[in-house]
Specification:
Elements lengths: L20 H6 L3 E3 L4 E4 L4 E6 L2 E9 L5 E5 L3 E12 L2 E9 L5 E6 L1
Antiparallel strand pairs: 1-2, 1-8, 2-3, 3-4, 4-5, 5-6, 6-7, 7-8
Length: 109
């Protein structure tokens, strides 16, 4: 579990509260099931790396209190985030697209 999340004790699958979104996203590098990786910076920048090719975007908390991302020039999406917890430790995040319901999971590296 990332050190910055040690004081939190969510259940597996529990939605990440708005007040914890920044901590959840910036706690460390996230590795997704397909091997791609993403880093979320405190300043709202994000880098997604797939097969060694980085792409820069932006992230923010939208007006509904959800995680949202912007990938230039025009792609915007909002997601519900849920904790991935194993043996009482936060090990990652599950993302559900608010538009089409697609899901993906990432683990803290």
């Amino acid at each position: 579990m990332p050190r910055t999340l040690e004081s939190l004790t969510p259940a597996d699958g529990e939605q990440v509260a708005k007040k914890n979104l920044v901590a959840a996203l910036t706690a460390g590098r996230i590795v997704y099931d397909d091997g791609s990786e993403q880093v979320f910076d405190h300043d709202g920048a994000t880098t997604y790396t797939d097969r060694g090719h980085p792409t820069r975007g932006e992230w923010y908390i939208d007006t509904d209190g959800r995680f949202a991302s912007f990938w230039p020039p025009t792609y915007r999406a909002s997601y519900d985030l849920r904790w991935v917890v194993e043996a009482g430790s936060i090990v990652g995040l599950s993302f559900t697209h608010c538009g089409d319901g697609s899901q993906f999971t990432g683990r803290y590296a």
